[in-house]
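Narrative of accomplishments. A recurring question from our advisory board has been how the design workflow behaves on a single, concrete structure rather than in aggregate. To address it, we present the structure tokens for one chain from the evaluation set, followed by the sequence designed for it. No filtering or post-editing was applied between the two.
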């Protein structure tokens, strides 16, 4: 597909994040399984449910602009998830693993925040009011998730440091 106009760029970014979300949907159960504290596990599971809704919202946006819901390989998210998968293979102490999982998850959240922020802005400029509302809804969820992870990290990072001292 050629990216010439802002409409094209909007569709390009939409396809990117649609593919990215689908990859995230597959990765989250693995991350929940690798998490060692119930709070972090619950956070990943909750975000899995949110991600399902976010994918549906993206499908609604595709419908609103009358384009087929089709993704385009999101190399950014793919790379971030691969890094997370590599970490999960490590033999880290439990709180250290959790700290690393949070770091990996926040990198993904920040990518998503950038994507949805951009898409919502384009939607506004392009006069796509309804699409813009849907994108802003997801943007707010991603920001909330990022904040929740920061909150969890403040305790888990400390535990990781304590465990490291005892080792
Ligand atoms: Fe998402
Ligand atoms: Fe997310």
């Amino acid at each position: 597909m050629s990216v010439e106009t802002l409409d094209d760029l909007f569709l390009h970014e939409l396809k990117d994040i649609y593919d990215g979300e689908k990859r995230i949907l597959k990765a989250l159960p693995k991350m929940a399984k690798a998490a060692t504290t119930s709070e972090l596990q619950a956070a990943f599971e909750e975000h899995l449910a949110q991600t399902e809704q976010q994918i549906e919202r993206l499908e609604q946006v595709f419908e609103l602009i009358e384009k087929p819901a089709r993704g385009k390989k999101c190399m950014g998210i793919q790379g971030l998830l691969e890094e997370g998968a590599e970490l999960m293979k490590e033999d880290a102490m439990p709180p250290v693993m959790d700290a690393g999982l949070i770091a990996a998850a926040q990198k993904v959240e920040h990518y998503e925040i950038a994507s949805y922020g951009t898409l919502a802005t384009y939607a506004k400029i392009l006069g796509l009011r309804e699409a813009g509302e849907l994108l802003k809804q997801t943007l707010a969820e991603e920001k909330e998730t990022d904040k929740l992870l920061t909150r969890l990290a403040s305790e888990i990072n400390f535990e990781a440091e304590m465990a490291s001292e005892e080792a």
